[in-house]
């Protein structure tokens, strides 16, 4: 099963940071991420499910409660990615840090390497982004639309006396620009969707309702949700693995992958110590990969390790946890079987939030 969020207007996909003037101060700015986080997707799906069932969403809902609401005990959400439909077919766009790249171009670039990726980067003295550009991978950037708003009372939707102005930067997919081309998607967005896939049995399967209009992201933005059969990205993964039985592969990280960090903020920086090509988070990742399957042999990681705050809990009046995170576009080299790689796609590599989509990876077999 896959679920499309068809977009018809600029969207605000806020990142995992506080937005309240009480936390951020009088000059509050919220800038949209290039794609929604898995937690934004899961929250929207939980709301859609409970609305269909005429039930209320519990207050202070965490990821565990969302997993329970959606019945993900034996299922995983994978993604999201961006899908553009044409008269002659479709194109998948995936995230690379804060840009978008075409799925097929990344696959072609990695499979066309004459030698190992890490060795290639060392010989050419280039970063991954520059190497992919050399391999004719286009990096796309949507436009951003700014709006100014004022804080309202939650119950009556009137301006708060102690409130303040804030600025939001919404992502607008009507124009996607790269260094080589500018694509005019169109103001109606009729052919563009944010897509996730659900692998396994979920309560969403049992809904008689297969589509609807719902709020998606912040600022009351709307999308048209459509539930369809099949898993388009999984089909592409299986196609890549058609003649693969066992060997080396690159895992392309589609979404942020989260790892527990210390509550002592003086120590938290040590988790990502080691730089771009060898963050010390690698040891924890090795453990997770081998827990998924003992036959997986991790080789190395090339990617960006950052820290993400899960936000601020208004009901509890406290910060949510901080996580060490690998950014989308990170590449992990492994040696594994075909079954291992399919399992990695299905279950992900995130220590936290894997059920709702964090740590989604695309396995790309190495041909040389």
What are its keywords?
20 strands; 7-stranded antiparallel β-sheet; alpha+beta; 4-stranded mixed β-sheet; globular; 368 residues
Structural write-up:
By secondary structure, the chain is α+β, with helices and mostly antiparallel strands. Helix content is 22%, strand content 35%. It is built from 9 helices and 20 strands. It has a 7-stranded antiparallel beta sheet, sandwiched between helices. Strand 16 and strand 17 (318-319) form a beta hairpin. Helix 2 (38-52) crosses helix 3.
Uncertain segments of ≥5 residues (pLDDT<50)?
none
In whole angstroms, the N-to-C terminal distance is 34 Å
Instruction: Estimate percent helicity.
Output: 10-25%
Let me know the largest β-sheet. Answer: 7 strands, antiparallel
User: Kindly state the mean pLDDT as a whole number?
Assistant: 83
Spatial strand sequence of the major β-sheet: 5-4-3-9-1-11-10
Helix/strand-derived category reads alpha+beta
Beta-strand residue percentage? 25-35%
- Summarize the helix and strand pattern as letters: EHEHHEEEHHHEEEEEEHEEHEEEEEEHE
Overall shape: it is: globular
Compute the CA-based radius of gyration: 21 Å
Report the count of strand segments. 20
By DSSP (H or I, 4+ residues per run), the number of helices equals: 9
